[in-house]
Write a structure and sequence with these properties.
By secondary structure, the protein is an alpha/beta fold. It contains 28 helices and 15 strands. The longest helix is centred in the N-terminal third of the chain and has 35 residues, at 160-194.
């Protein structure tokens, strides 16, 4: 019995060891240094093969007998090949035993593989491999079919053993005709794969055009003038329709055909007039024919002008009026970043410790029993960072009793902190989230290489990380529509922003997406500055691609407000409700650029360190952000703001109301967690990318994907070295007269009497008489709410009656007496 138990244990261990071995081998060859060395070796072999191949033909058949002697008798021999015996053997084998003369194509194939392994240039390896292997096979069959095995004196088989075998087999089965068909079909498929112009060229060459009916059936019936005129009229109408159709199909040949018809009719009239009618009759019929021809041409021109007007602006696409517009045409050769630009982090493959799970489960059950709480069942789900223990309490147990035991359970498990989810949404269980002893990194490459990300149909897909059940967690930015990111310093906030931007860069074409990036710290988002001509948007004349100056931030936000208003006007003109519907109409040429319509890419505004902007600019920044957040969803403008100070004076009620999606990393206190999520929980996270994502009623715990700086640099470099637009996406000029000011630091500007509050004059007199400028004074005097009193105080500031706010101190009253005030009021009212 003991021996059988040992054997069974060995059988269970063996597969894991094999799996670990293959993982280590894969990790070894994934190292870029190993790949570079392999590429260098392949280059060396390719050069050696090239010299050996050329020398094989230059040496003639002198090496053939030497090789036979060397192989059969094993005697020392000196080959004439410049590659020695080894080069002669390789060339002899590849030429005579493989692909014949076409074996030379192995040289560029090896070079392509070496370039890819050495990461000298981003090459689509599979495409280039097929583009070189298929011609090698085709030429092998072609040479063997056309030339055969050559003469007896030939030392090199033209098609090689491969070509001879394929040609002989197919020739035996279907004859020479079958070999020719095979070669033609292979060539056709290859040309279709290599270039997209093959099918249009074939369609043009093989197009069948039916000859037009000639109006020559009535040449002999010219005596009956009236009947002939009626027949000619009906036939001319048919010719007119045929000519209009021919214009659409044959790109404007109808004018030449009309001229030919007119000349033919003139000849017929001259013949008829000479034989049977006098000169007056000929002149009359000539005038009638000319009149009918002119009417036909005019009708054709009118229909042509209507078609041109309908498809105006399509001349650049070659006159194909039915072909939809493709925004990618300008950057048709753009290639998205590849997965190998991201790192696959080497981490120890810790197997799931069943004993540890069972021990934790028993400890949880024991603690609950000590406090008089019985449970029916317990189940564990292992994630990358935490393990979720789902417990089903016995009937009659109050959930609040379990929730209050959080610290006791944490102490029994010797855990830093745990989190209790009571109850789990959609389930009749209570969740206890316990940190794993060995935390796993979630590489960004694993998310972008997942089937869920590749097959998604989201407009703006964000691959954020993995859930407790190790599933890829994705959200659609277009549906959120704005995102608030918060977390303490060093908890993964900046890495989360990089993961969001990277997932968009991998999925979106530059024609469909633009970024506006604001970085007061000047270092977090500076890596993306090289994407100016691909993905960035900016104000015209601005040199800063990543905005760092507060004044420029305000101008850019105002410019986005103008862009938002302009887009809404275009949506109104097009009678649509969203940017998606508008772009569909525009691409299908239902909206004309001549009427002011244009393609609208999505604009994602990324603001890092929003707290710093609030401290320096206050409501001057908050108000345009709130306006964009309230209205910009339908026109494709979305915002992501991040802060490490989730306090109420930074994340105000206005911001929270307009940013329904929240991404919370670990914070210091439960108060900060409630500021972000309206509930506690973010203070119980583990840090290092552990986060709660709230996009509905209940938050989801996610381990954020890791994207390091070097990975972002490689991705940006890959995009930047490709062809881009002439310049960045230009935002409209901001409306400097727009008033986005507030009590916390508004802009002073012109204000008209129709915008003043009805209590403005009375409030101004009260403030001047009291020489005390405060919002609370207006509240008490006129029995109004705080918001209205604040607006009146802002108006007093803008008209120069009171000064700017100075912290908690009352505002300075700039009007010294009532006479000065009345003079100001008269100029305003």
């Amino acid at each position: 019995m003991a021996k059988t138990e040992k054997k069974s244990k060995r059988k269970k261990v063996a597969p894991s060891k094999i799996k670990t071995f293959f993982q280590s081998v894969r990790a070894f060859f994934a190292d870029r240094r190993v790949q570079f060395v392999l590429g260098a070796l392949i280059v060396a072999f390719a050069v050696f093969f090239c010299f050996s191949y050329v020398s094989f033909f230059s040496a003639g058949g002198s090496d053939h007998d030497i090789l036979e002697t060397y192989v059969t008798e094993g005697r020392d021999a000196k080959a004439a090949n410049s590659g020695g015996i080894g080069g002669a053997v390789i060339a002899e084998y590849l030429v005579n035993e493989c692909f014949g003369w076409a074996s030379i194509l192995l040289f560029p194939l090896l070079v392509v593989w070496a370039i890819r392994l050495m990461h000298l240039y981003e090459i689509r390896l599979m495409r280039w491999t097929l583009m070189l292997l298929v011609p090698m096979v085709w030429f092998s069959i072609f040479f063997s079919f056309v030339i055969g095995e050559g003469f007896d004196s030939w030392y090199a088989s033209p098609g090689g053993a491969h070509g001879n075998l394929i040609t002989g087999f197919i020739g035996q089965m279907v004859g020479n005709v079958g070999v020719i068909i095979l070669l033609v079909v292979m060539l056709l498929f290859y040309m279709i794969y290599v270039t997209k112009d093959t099918i249009p060229w074939l369609q043009e060459k093989l197009a069948i055009t039916l000859p037009k009916k000639k109006d020559s059936d009535n040449v002999e019936e010219t005596e009956e003038v009236d009947e002939e005129d009626e027949e000619d009229g009906s036939e001319d109408e048919d010719d007119e329709d045929d000519e209009n159709e021919d214009y659409d199909d044959e790109e404007g040949d109808e004018e030449e055909q009309d001229n030919e018809d007119v000349e033919e009719d003139e000849i017929l009239i001259e013949i008829d007039g000479t034989d049977e009618e006098d000169d007056d009759e000929v002149a009359r019929r000539f005038d009638e024919m000319s009149k009918r021809t002119t009417e036909s041409v005019d009708a054709g021109d009118e229909e042509l002008s209507m078609e041109v007007e309908k498809a105006e602006g399509d001349e650049d696409t070659g006159g194909d009026m039915l072909r939809p517009i493709n925004p990618k045409d300008e950057l048709s050769y753009y290639k998205p970043p590849t997965i190998d630009l991201l790192d696959e982090y080497e981490q120890a493959a810790h197997s799931i410790d069943r004993n540890e799970q069972a021990a934790n489960a028993n400890k949880i059950v024991e603690v609950l029993k000590n406090f008089g709480i019985d449970i029916s069942s317990i189940k564990a789900t292992v994630g990358p960072t935490i393990t979720l223990y789902e417990i089903t309490p016995a009937p009659g147990v109050r959930i609040s009793k379990i929730r209050n035991l959080e610290d006791d359970i944490a102490m029994s498990l010797s855990a830093l902190c745990i989190r209790i989810v009571a109850p789990i949404p959609g389930k009749g269980t209570i969740g206890i989230e316990v940190p794993n002893a060995h935390k796993q990194i979630v590489p960004m490459a694993s998310l972008l290489n997942s089937r869920k990300y590749k097959e998604t149909d989201m407009a703006l897909p964000l691959a954020l990380g993995k859930t407790i059940s190790n599933e890829v967690y994705m959200v659609d930015m277009a549906k959120m529509p704005h995102l608030l990111v918060a977390g303490a310093t060093g908890m993964g906030k900046s890495v989360g922003l990089n993961a969001i931007i990277t997932s968009l860069l991998y999925k979106m074409h530059p024609a469909y997406l633009k970024f506006v990036m604001v970085d007061p710290k000047m270092v977090e988002l500076s890596l993306y500055g090289v994407l100016e001509k691909h993905f960035l948007a900016k104000l015209e004349g601005e040199d800063e691609l990543i905005i760092t100056d507060v004044n420029k931030v305000v101008r850019t936000l105002k410019s986005l407000c103008v862009e938002m208003d302009n887009r809404y006007k275009l949506l109104q003109m097009a009678s649509v409700r969203s940017v998606k519907e508008y772009n569909e109409k525009f691409l299908n040429k239902e909206l004309l650029p001549t009427k002011g319509h244009r393609f609208m890419p999505y604009i994602v505004v990324v603001i890092d360190e929003y707290g710093d902007l609030m401290m320096t600019a206050g409501r001057e920044v908050e108000q345009p952000i709130a306006r964009i957040a309230q209205k910009a969803r339908a026109v494709g403008i979305h915002m992501i703001i991040a802060t490490q100070r989730p306090t109420t004076n930074i994340i105000t009620g206005t911001i929270k109301a307009n940013f329904p999606a929240r991404m919370a990393f670990r914070v210091i206190s439960a108060i900060d967690s409630r500021t972000i999520l309206d509930r506690s929980g973010a203070n119980q996270l583990q840090g290092r990318g552990d986060m709660l994502f709230l996009a509905g009623n209940d938050p989801v715990r996610v381990q954020c994907a890791l994207v390091e700086t070097k990975e972002v640099e490689r991705v940006c470099a890959h995009i930047a070295k490709q062809q881009g637009y002439q310049q960045a996406y230009i935002l409209p000029e901001p409306d400097e007269a727009a008033d986005f000011g507030g009590e916390g630091g508004g802009m002073r500007g012109e204000i008209t009497s129709d915008k003043l509050d009805p209590l403005f004059a009375e409030a101004a007199r009260a403030v001047v008489l009291a020489q005390h400028g405060s919002t609370s004074l207006i509240q008490r005097k006129f029995n109004v709410g705080f918001n209205r009193a604040g607006r009146i105080m802002d108006q007093l500031c803008q008209t120069g009656i009171v000064g700017e706010q100075e912290g908690s101190k009352p505002r300075q009253v700039l009007c010294t007496d009532e006479a000065d005030l009345e003079f100001r009021l008269k100029s305003l009212l």
